[in-house]
Amino acid sequence: MEKNKYWNPFLETLPRDELVHIEIKRFREVMAFTIKNCPMYRDKFKEVGISPEEIKTLDDIRKVPLTDKEELRRAQECGEPFLYGKTLAADLTELCTLRQTSGTTGRPVYVPDTYRSWQWRVESYAALLYMMGFREIDRVFIPFAYNVYVAFWSGHYAAEKIGCEVIPGGGLDTKGRIEKIREVRATASFNTPTFGLHMAEVAQEMGINPARDLTVRKMVCAGELLSEPTRKRLEELWNADVYNQIGGTETCGWAAMCTEKKDLHVVEPYFLVEFLDPETLSTSVKPGEQGVVVITPLFFRAFPLIRFNTNDLMTLAKGDCPCGRTSLRIEKIIGRIDDLHKIRGVLFSPLSVEEVIRGKFPQILEYEIVVTRPSIMDEIMLRVEMDPTIRKEEFEGLAKSLQQQLKNVTNLRFELQWCKPGELPRYTLKAKRFKDLRS
Amino acid sequence: MRKKSFSILEIKKSLKKIEAEATKLKKLTKGIPGVQKNIAPILAFIDILKFHLGDLKDEE
Description:
The complex is a heterodimer.
Chain A: H1 16-37, H2 39-48, H3 58-61, H4 69-77, E1 95-100, E2 110-114, H5 115-131, E3 139-142, H6 150-162, E4 165-168, H7 174-184, E5 188-191, H8 193-205, H9 210-213, E6 218-221, H10 228-238, E7 241-248, E8 252-257, E9 264-266, E10 271-276, E11 290-297, E12 308-316, E13 329-336, E14 341-343, E15 346-348, H11 350-360, E16 364-372, E17 379-386, H12 395-410, E18 415-419, E19 434-436
Chain B: H1 8-28, H2 33-54
Helix pairs in contact in B: 1-2
């Protein structure tokens, strides 16, 4: 067994009641801090009439109102200082970084950090990377220009903190990035699932087999939902251990797979994470059930969050993990509640299509789901780009099998449309494979 | 939980000393940005060190 398996062997193996005790104490601290320093929370808690002294158990925490993204937007739009409005809990002169959300669902949320607060983001991400097996010996290639988005910045600094060599891969095209991985013999990489698949495809076009010719043996995937079949496909393509990791700009990375590669561990006690009943949002779900994830980062101070509703639906795992960590675990990520669509009265998650395609149809290189409503009924079309080595005669049998399997999983009938090689867009960060054209 | 092969109490004492000295240094060096800016990271990391060990109970 590895000598130093844990980032902190004591905290990571604490009995659950002790872990919860620490988190409740830290929750009280961050709540008291926000009342003193953050106008948004000061106003909110005053209105509700709740104080940190009342918080003694997890049930007490449920009395504290949730925070959602729209509320953060509103608080940033009104008042001073510019950009941060009432969400800022630090002096402007102390700030050292500014990141933001992508703004795909409205005005971006701007996330400031002081040096001190930023170090907490780096620290909690370092704990995640360590859990995923990143070590001093690793040479980590990050094939992105990080821009104003936090994900790879925290990953970059966290890998440095662990002692890895970090190579930023922005400003190169995909071929250039593959060449750089080969040139420096990178042993690890950060990726999005979509870009990991795309890089493997481009490498093969260049005559490079990533599994054989490249040295990446660890890959963290974030930024998009990663289905288990896609994770396994990436492992085959790269001959690497591929780890799922989740987080967001507001919260930072807060859960990831350990080297068992089964469930995702919440990185406790950096975060207090609740899994709430999707209907009521007022009680916790039991292991094995699906819950909406609500997060309180316990150490971020410049832009504090208390009970942030991620709107993500996930299944809380049962039992223990063989790795020995006692943290809460996620068995399955169902998706963002906003990403579930009603089609012909059926609740549909695009992730179910991803699971079928990546799990059972490796001949399909790329796909796109298009929903329309030409008259009364919704129509759902799957546009498919096949591996060019597949013969046309095989298409019919494949189409039947694909339609049947999609029907079994989604209870919906899909029309199929074959696309030419390269016709469908390739994505690097957030893939948009679902298009709802219903007006 | 892992058995601790060290004294949490000693560690907590040591952290407290470092924090007190860094805070003192910060006060003494007002007006010297080059020093002030290098103390800030020390205080940030003391915060994290306290997290790693500060909540543990001593078994001795």
